[in-house]
Design a protein that fits this description.
single chain; 55% helix; alpha/beta; 6-stranded parallel beta sheet
Length: 430
């Protein structure tokens, strides 16, 4: 019995924000979705990573075949993604990518190391991968190969951070949002900014606003105490969520980053305040997935709405100088994938090694019992000496074949030798 690893997903490169939000899985939904996915035939484990820029399912499947058709497993995951989120399969299919076995491992390593992120080197993605893995672990969905893959991915990400400068000066999505606001208004100190949300993204936005001289920052959130805490840390003020309309009336720039499944600002709401604002423009930057702000607002005169995909241009300006460090990081990933492959090859022969040593030990004990019955005159000390001698003899006898088998496995040549040992010692086929 072997395990195969299959990854199916979409990200900011393959799907626009309206498609990404249609399959987004919130933290609250995750336990239920993980429970549902575990009912798939042959599935051993699964993790679901869902952020503003990607939704990916990484799963392991049991197979007794030498070369199972992993594409069928990919199709099963594809169908599950569509079914669980109520999205037609044909809508998703054009945006999905599939990775199998070591290519799936490579992809997980690259995502954790922030080499596949919209913003190269951003630190936030590693925390998101760890949270996704922890949720799956708590659901009992990370056995065997899947658990090993993600645990190794975290070590690879740490190595990339330590040995390269790919994350040095890396901007975040929150930083890019503020840079976009600066392109709209040269001087942020004169603009009234409303932040809707109080999570990590909102924190980053406020920090960057303050660093660029923003003086009037108002924070609103469904959980008022969190809004108060964020505003207090950065010298801002707060408005209660049920009084959001008044704050919107006074704002020049609104940056929204909540985890709300529905629109925070609707078209009807903004149409009402346009008359009160007269001709004063309103700039909205929505970096949430699912989106916080009704996209149809862009149709209204004097309303300028940008979403997370509109940040790509800002991101590219800050990307070029980190490309050289990214090349170093890619080499580290390649090296770690090769090491991981060798580890997996060794793990595949471990059951054979255990079976061999257990059978040999059983034979040793049987022969020792026969000999002991014939040598009743031996004292305890002599019996112990004979026992140690037979154990040492067995260990030395098996050492050569076991070391040779493991070395062959690490070099990708272990299958033939394993088959030979299995036949010679008449070990069980499983």
């Amino acid at each position: 019995m072997t395990e195969r690893i299959v990854l199916v997903g979409l990200n900011h490169r393959t799907a626009p924000v309206e498609v990404r939000e249609s399959v987004h899985v919130t933290q609250e939904m995750l336990p239920k979705v993980l429970s549902e996915i575990r009912t798939l035939d042959g599935l051993r484990g699964a993790t679901i990573l869902s952020t503003c820029n990607r939704t990916e399912v990484t799963a392991t499947f049991a197979s007794s075949e030498t070369h199972p058709d992993t594409s069928k497993a990919g199709q099963a995951l594809e169908a599950f993604m569509a079914r669980s989120r109520g999205v037609p399969e044909e809508t998703l299919r054009a945006h999905l990518y599939h990775h199998f076995d070591l290519e799936a491992v490579r992809h997980v390593f690259r995502v954790a190391s922030s080499l596949d992120a919209m913003i190269l080197g951003e630190p936030q993605i590693l925390g998101q991968v760890k949270e996704a893995f922890e949720a799956a672990r708590q659901a009992g969905a990370t056995p065997g190969l899947l658990g090993r893959t993600f645990e190794r991915a975290f070590r690879v990400a740490k190595r990339v951070r330590t040995e390269t400068a790919v994350g040095d000066g890396a901007v975040s999505v929150g930083y890019a949002a503020v840079e976009l606001a600066r392109k709209i208004f040269d001087d942020l100190s004169r603009q009234r900014v409303l932040i809707i949300g109080s999570g990590e993204m909102a924190e980053t936005i406020v920090e960057n606003l303050k660093s660029h001289g923003s003086l009037s920052i108002v924070v609103s959130n469904r959980h008022y105490d969190r809004a108060v805490a964020l505003a207090a840390r950065h010298g801002g003020t707060t408005v209660r969520y049920d009084a959001l309309a008044e704050a919107v009336d006074d704002a020049d720039i609104i940056l929204s980053a909540t985890a709300c499944p529905a629109h925070v600002l609707s078209r009807e709401h903004v149409e009402e305040l346009r008359h009160r604002r007269r001709s004063k423009p309103l700039f909205l930057i929505d970096i949430a997935v699912p989106r916080d702000i009704d996209p149809s607002l862009n149709e209204l005169e004097g309303i300028f709405l940008y979403n997370i995909d509109d940040l790509a241009g800002v991101v590219e300006e800050n990307r070029a100088w980190r490309e050289a460090e990214a090349c170093k990081a890619e080499r580290i990933v390649d090296e770690e994938v090769l090491k991981f492959a060798r580890t997996l090859e060794t793990l595949e022969v471990d059951p054979l090694v255990r079976a061999l040593t257990e059978k040999a030990e059983k034979i040793r004990l049987e022969e020792w019992e026969k000999t002991f019955r014939r040598l009743r005159g031996l004292g305890d000390e002599e019996r112990e000496a004979v026992q140690r001698m037979t154990q040492a003899l067995l260990k030395k006898l098996l050492s050569g074949p076991i070391v040779t088998l493991k070395q062959a496995a690490q070099n990708g040549e272990g299958h033939e030798l394993a088959d030979a040992l299995q036949k010679m010692f008449r070990l069980p086929e499983d």
